[in-house]
Design a protein that fits this description.
- The structure is a single chain.
- Helices cover about 80% and strands about 0% of the residues.
- The chain is mainly α and about 270 residues long.
- The chain is globular and about 70 Å long.
Length: about 270
């Protein structure tokens, strides 16, 4: 296994991969700004991007502390849900009868809208405590991580298992040497999805009650007093933090799963 090195060619290739996304983003902002001016859309329906950016800068001392508070809730839920999903997938993969009993329950729980969980968790925990928001984010993260991890753990070639058995390897050794490394690309795919869902869960949970320092509460309160520019600026902060968590997972994947074709330097 060769070590992963960053070369000018790989950096240039990664930069070129971002060009289409940046171009589409700039085009979308231009269309947004132009459509408001052309069709005289009221600010309570859709503020101008320039007004949102202005509010983002003017209210930065309020928005970023609130965003950091919510980000910590999302990070806690991300960790709980992801670890729980990996542990559940390991148990289900090892004990198929247990998986047959628990899988319908997990599917049913995942089918319930998150806004139905939010008031219940706020009733179970202190509404002002971040624990309820972590629980909501954890529920959102649990199912995709569990399903993808289970798929990865069970996608091992039977020949690999037979080879390990021929060396009298234990189930734990097979899991550690074969099943878990094989499942890593699947796990990181799920973690990237969960990183976005965690931020969504934390913000949605705060809409039903939370600390005044929370971003979701700030967005709701600003919308109620018709300060839509600041409300949209809060949404921008949530988006940036969600992207940051996603990129952190993606960078970790590149460092850990170096043998995957998409992570190999060209």
């Amino acid at each position: 296994m060769s070590s992963y090195t960053i070369t000018p060619g790989s950096v240039g290739r990664q930069a070129r991969e971002w060009v289409p996304a940046i171009a589409v983003f700039v085009l979308a902002i231009a269309v947004w700004q132009g459509a408001i001016a052309a069709f005289h859309i009221q600010q309570f329906l859709l503020p101008k991007p320039t007004a949102i950016v202005s509010a983002f800068w003017d209210q930065r001392h309020t928005l970023w502390p609130a965003g950091w508070y919510t980000f910590k809730e999302a990070l806690g839920g991300f960790a709980l849900g992801s670890l729980g999903g990996i542990a559940a997938a390991t148990l289900i993969g090892r004990f198929r009868a247990l998986g047959n009993a628990l899988m319908p329950i997990a599917i049913a729980a995942n089918a319930i809208p998150i806004i139905a969980f939010a008031p219940i968790f706020n009733a179970w925990f202190d509404p002002l405590s971040p624990n309820s928001k972590m629980a909501i984010a954890g529920v959102l993260c649990f199912f995709p991580v569990m399903v993808n991890t289970l798929r990865g753990l069970t996608s091992v070639s039977p020949r690999q298992i037979e080879l390990m058995r021929s060396y009298a390897a234990s189930d734990l050794t097979i899991w550690r040497r074969v099943r878990f490394p094989t499942a890593l690309p699947f796990i990181f795919t799920a973690l990237k999805v969960a990183s976005v869902l965690a931020m969504i869960g934390a913000v949605v949970g705060e809409y039903f009650g939370g600390s005044y320092d929370a971003l979701g509460v700030l967005i709701r309160s600003k919308a109620q007093i018709l300060d839509f520019q600041t409300a949209w600026a809060g949404i921008l902060v949530a988006s940036l933090l969600g992207i940051a968590l996603y990129l952190a997972v993606a960078l970790t994947e590149r460092a850990v799963v170096r043998w995957a074709p998409e992570n190999r330097p060209s």
